[in-house]
Amino acid sequence: xxxxxxxxxxxxxxxxxxxxxxxxxxxxxxxxxxxxxxxxxxxxxxxxxxxxxxxxxxxxxxxxxxxxxxx
Length: 71
Description:
Largest sheet: 5 strands, mixed
Order of helices and strands: EEEEEEE
Shape: globular
Strand content: over 45%
Mean pLDDT: 95
Distance between the termini: 11 Å
Helix content: under 10%
Strand order of the largest sheet: 1-7-6-3-4
């Protein structure tokens, strides 16, 4: 996991220019959703409780899932 405190930044792969994302807690409840058409996106996670989450990034080619630790 990559620890973050107030902001989470992710970068889309080179050939991708559009994606949607969702952040889930470990019980599977959605905490934050959004979409982007930028290569690098920053999400404000300051209102989300500390803990371990899953960030799912959905593009037209793949679905990426990453663990995120909010401290």
